[in-house]
Design goal:
alpha/beta, Quinone Oxidoreductase, Chain A, domain 1, Rossmann fold, 2 domains, seven-stranded mixed sheet, 9 helices, globular, oxidoreductase, oxidoreductase activity, Alcohol dehydrogenase
């Protein structure tokens, strides 16, 4: 079968990948759509740094241990798919059922995350394996494209849940890429009455308004903190200097939720946060309930993710799509449709 893989920092297409064979508790699926995530772009550019950081980090298992960058890397974790077949003694939904899943594959040897792997195939392929116990059937006739955005929307919901924001508190979202947009959508769903979004890109500010922001600001004109007094700030940029700037400018007693993934060393002045008693919460991923709730919200029309889908490509064009996503004015979410 065909699959797009990361090789020497570039996405290339292989047509010689063996069809995966489902084991017990697994299903073989036909991939219908898979979103290109910013973390995939980060890994393509900073894979060696990410692997090194994971190896040095204590307190959590290194999910990327054993990855060899000199070999092809399978990626793609924002997917929807159709069930083709099931492994031996596996009870699951009928063939033809459209599903999505938390990106994890359970096997007799343990759990492999469907994120970056030399062996576990992801959504940038015609077919892949999923774990039967983790499958969520896609309800309400929701199409495959919008269902594929369940995973990134769960990331935004997790950040909003961690903030414990109340409806009457002002939220400022710094950065309106896919993560920031997902946060804005979750804030709107929660009923937050004053959502402010800040981004240099006019296209991203326009999308932020579409997805639920009440006010959008251009930080090139003035600091957003001079134009609003947020109680909760969501940092969704992931670039050095942003966290320190927020701590310097944010109101006393505010809360900062860091959702942007910065791969470079950064510097902050604790004095700002200490003096103003700012609570800082770093967030990552989501839990199974947040994933399921995101799918339900999309399927029931509480969140319209269609405006986020700004492009569709086949496997042959995945490399070009990675390049295009570097331009914030062109795209929010490109879907790969194998």
């Amino acid at each position: 079968m065909r699959a797009a893989v990361l090789r020497d920092g570039r996405m290339v297409v292989r047509d010689d990948v063996p069809d995966p064979v489902p084991g017990a508790g697994q299903v073989l699926v036909d991939v219908k759509a898979c979103g290109i995530c910013g973390s995939d772009l980060h890994f393509a550019k900073h894979g060696d740094e990410m692997l090194a950081a994971g190896a040095q980090m204590e307190g959590l298992p290194d999910i990327n241990a054993g990855i060899d960058l000199s070999r092809d890397i399978f990626m793609g974790h924002e997917f929807s798919a159709e069930i083709l077949d099931a492994g031996p003694e596996t009870e699951t939904h009928a063939p033809g059922t459209l599903v999505t899943s938390i990106p994890a594959l359970i096997s007799t040897t343990g759990v492999d995350m469907i994120v970056y792997s030399n062996t576990t195939i992801g959504g940038y392929a015609e077919k892949m394996l999923l774990s039967a116990p983790l499958l969520l059937p896609i309800p309400n006739g929701l199409d495959a494209d919008r269902a594929a955005l369940t995973e990134p929307m769960a990331v935004g919901l997790h950040a909003v849940n961690a903030a414990r924001i109340e409806r009457g508190e002002t939220a400022l979202v710094v950065g309106c890429g896919p993560v920031g947009i997902a946060i804005i959508a979750a804030l709107k769903q929660r009923g937050v009455e004053n959502i402010v979004a800040s981004d240099f890109s006019p296209a991203r500010r326009e999308l932020a308004t579409t997805m639920g922001a009440h006010v959008t600001l251009d930080p090139a004109e003035d600091s957003p903190f001079h134009q609003c007094q947020p109680k909760v700030v969501f940092e969704a940029v992931g670039a050095p200097g942003i966290i320190d700037d927020v701590l310097r400018r944010a109101p006393a007693g505010s809360r900062l939720v860091v959702a942007g993934v910065c791969m470079q060393p950064d510097t902050v002045h604790p004095f700002y946060a200490i003096t103003k008693q700012i609570n800082i919460q770093f967030v990552f991923g989501y839990d199974p309930a947040e994933f399921a709730n995101s799918l339900r919200a999309i399927a029931e029309g509480e969140i319209d993710v269609a405006p986020m889908i700004t492009g569709r490509v086949e496997l042959d064009a995945v490399g070009d799509a990675f390049t295009e996503l570097a331009d914030p004015d062109r795209h929010c979410k490109i879907l790969v449709t194998p």
